[in-house]
Write a structure and sequence with these properties.
Blueprint (H helix, E strand, L loop, with lengths): L16 H6 L3 E5 L3 H4 L1 H12 L3 E5 L12 E3 L6 H14 L5 H7 E2 L1 H9 L3 H8 L3 H13 L3 E5 L1 H4 L4 H14 L10 E3 L6 H6 L6 E2 L3 E2 L3 H11 L11 H10 L4 E5 L3 H4 L3 H9 L3 E6 L11 E4 L8 E4 L4 E5 L12 H19 L20 H11 L8 H4 L4 E2 L23 E2 L18 E6 L15 H6 L4 E5 H7 L6 E6 L2 E10 L6 E5 L27 E7 L5
Parallel strand pairs: 1-2, 1-5, 2-3, 4-15, 5-6, 9-10, 10-11, 16-20, 17-19
Antiparallel strand pairs: 7-8, 12-13, 13-14, 16-21, 18-19, 18-21
Helix pairs in contact: 4-7, 4-8, 4-10, 13-15
The chain binds ligand MGD (2 copies) and molybdenum atom (MO).
Length: 561
């Protein structure tokens, strides 16, 4: 599940799982460990490759997918813009671009082309470490096998240049005319089961449900009339900004629903100090997490299997979730707890201030009185055009992909067919810039972080599963054999991984998964918490932290610490 506000990931898949796994003749998978992190899609890709589709994987690490890749672009972490611009350069130079699509469906091509001219294969090879031949071969595969699907995930977004990386992916798909066709598109694979739904419902600081902007007077007036309240017109804070706000005093109280930031936030030692300085902290979770232990009040929630509702998956498909088992103790579905809290706050406010008389009972959705999640869906449909045609009755039979504006509308498997939702697709010139922290003499290695197949995030759920603990009992730092030799480290040895922000005691896994100069750690393990080390620098636009690059050093350590 996702928290009240999430800054992780952006956008939505333009295409569907079925068409990208059946119709694509080539793939460019960049910064996505698809078979481990999105196994359903990963299996589809595997089958497609077995049936002859070509696969380009761009990832600094030798992941499972690179074993079946036609070409593996093993670039340095944090050099994605240079790599993607380099691919575009080769495509233009060789005339593999789709001139017709560019002329009829896009704008700003010439201005963008000027920037791309500078990314010659030789220069790109120098920045990224990718051989020129591999770059040219990858460009040929992606551009000349149509349709080609581009897939990306956190390896692209979790950088101070994350939004630039995303724009560079979109540029490449437009250049080759791979938008609005089955088997093509730009497909950010969303992470949690319902992170797409949380964003769709306005779990972001700048939008109401359905991406209707809080700064749009018309949209705000609509929600004010429906809810019988006056609403602020300013954009709120993102997750990391909220945590920082606790330290500066801008935020005094916080309610955290379904998130465990004491393990998942960047630079967790700092995050802990921030949360500790709050006047009041409420945590609503299904387990007593590290973050819950810091809370003034813990509200017990129920898991997915214990409640009714919907999840919206990575392909924008809204699907019913049905209660299978009864919840333990006093645990309640999140919506019930939120409504009960809201009613008490509203009641309290009405008693103590005149202000609250603005809450008018003739507004259709003013009461927080829902008999069931189905009623909440009716409110969503009434106020959210992209969900306008949805109801539990329709969802009973099968999931439906938004936009679905009316009850008769079948849903939308592919976005931007024939026309972009904004009109013309815009080529956005983007330039390579270095990550916020680069290796130096004191911290000579790049640390990149992420996930492993067997565990989920901070392990609150997966580390309670005996079988998974047998399969992957501990986290290790992956070190390249050449680096390990230089450091005198053998596979399984205990080491210290040290950054400017902290130190972690962990065992090393020595091999060639990581390239020389780069090490990798999963963030699943509290006893070897990767986020003690990570850098909280943010992308200036998307406000996503740079989880994928920071500078560290590795030292041999005694077993006992
Ligand atoms: N088993 C399992 N599945 C999960 C999750 C889980 O915890 N466990 N979490 C879910 C969630 S919320 C999410 S967001 C997704 C995340 O899914 P992914 O984004 O696929 O997973 P990550 O391990 O974060 O990183 C993906 C890849 O990025 C590569 N990488 C590192 N640095 C760079 C770089 O600079 N550039 C590029 N191009 N690649 C880089 C890593 O080597 C890694 O292979 O997974 C979801 N699925
Ligand atoms: N170093 C590093 N850090 C990262 C990342 C990385 O790649 N590297 N990735 C980032 C990304 S993409 C993500 S998504 C975050 C994930 O970070 P978090 O969301 O903080 O991690 P989870 O462990 O998934 O926490 C979810 C919590 O929700 C609880 N929960 C489960 N179901 C329910 C429910 O129905 N209701 C309620 N109320 N609670 C529930 C679980 O018990 C758990 O405590 O981590 C981020 N942090
Ligand atoms: Mo995520």
């Amino acid at each position: 599940m996702t928290g009240l506000v999430t800054a992780f990931g952006s956008g939505a898949m333009t295409n569907s799982i079925a068409d990208i796994t059946h119709d694509a003749r080539a793939y460019l998978i960049i910064g996505s460990n698809t078979t481990e992190q999105h196994p359903v899609i990963g299996i589809g890709i595997r089958q497609a490759v077995a049936n002859g589709a070509k696969l380009v994987v761009a990832d600094p690490r030798r992941i499972d997918l690179t074993r079946i890749a036609t070409v593996h672009l093993r670039h340095r972490p944090g050099t994605d813009v240079a790599l993607l611009n380099g691919l575009a350069h080769v495509i233009l130079r060789e005339g593999w671009h789709d001139a017709d699509f560019i002329a009829t469906r896009t704008e700003n091509f010439e201005a963008w082309r000027e920037v791309i001219e500078k990314y010659t294969p030789e220069r790109v090879s120098e920045i990224t470490g990718v051989p020129v031949d591999a770059l040219v071969e990858a460009a040929r595969i992606y551009a000349t096998n149509k349709p080609a699907a581009l897939l990306y995930a956190m390896g692209i977004t979790q950088h101070t240049g994350g939004h630039q990386n995303v724009l560079a992916c979109a540029n490449l798909a437009m250049l080759t005319g791979n938008i609005g066709v089955p088997g093509g598109g730009v497909n950010p694979l969303r992470g949690q089961n319902n992170v797409q739904g949380a964003c769709d419902m306005g779990g972001l600081p700048n939008v109401y449900p359905g991406y209707q902007r809080v700064t749009d007077d018309g949209a705000r007036a609509k929600f004010e009339a429906a809810w019988g309240v006056s609403l602020p017109d300013n954009v709120g804070l993102t997750v990391v900004e909220m945590v920082n706000g606790a330290e500066t005093g801008q935020v005094r109280g916080m309610m955290i629903v379904g998130e465990n930031p004491l393990l998942s936030d960047p630079d967790v030692n700092h995050a802990r100090r921030c949360l500790e300085s709050l006047d009041f902290l409420v945590v609503q979770d299904i387990f007593l997490t590290e973050t819950g232990q810091l809370a003034d009040v813990v509200l017990p929630a129920v898991s997915f299997a214990e409640k009714d509702g919907t999840f919206t998956n990575t392909e924008r498909r809204v699907q019913r979730v049905r209660k299978a088992i009864n919840p333990p103790g006093e645990a309640k579905p999140d919506w019930e707890t939120v409504c009960a809290l809201a009613k008490r706050i509203t009641h309290h406010a009405t008693r103590i201030t005149q202000h609250a008389t603005r809450i008018t009972q003739d507004a259709p959705y003013a009461g927080w009185d829902y008999a069931s999640p189905a009623e909440i869906m009716d409110e969503i449909a009434a106020l959210t055009p992209i969900y306008g045609g949805l109801s539990f009755e329709r969802l009973e039979e099968r999931g439906i992909q938004w936009p679905c504006p009316t009850p008769e509308h079948p849903g939308t498997p592919i976005l931007h067919v024939g026309k972009f939702s904004r009109g013309l697709g815009h080529f956005s010139p983007v330039e390579h810039y270095a990550p916020a922290e680069e290796p130096d003499d004191e911290y000579p290695l790049v640390l990149t972080t992420g996930r492993q197949l067997q565990h989920f995030h901070t392990g609150t759920m997966s580390r309670r599963v005996e079988g998974l603990n047998i399969l992957l009992p501990e986290g290790r730092v992956e070190v390249n054999t050449a680096d390990a030799e230089r450091l005198g480290i053998l596979d399984g040895d205990w080491v210290h991984v040290i950054s400017r922000r902290g130190k972690v005691h962990v065992r090393a896994s020595v091999g060639d998964v990581c390239p020389p100069g780069t090490v990798f750690m999963p963030f699943h393990f509290a006893e070897a918490a990767a986020n003690v080390l990570t850098n909280a620098a943010l992308d200036p636009i998307a406000k996503i932290p740079e989880y994928k690059v920071c500078a560290v050093r590795v030292e041999k350590a005694p077993q006992a610490d």
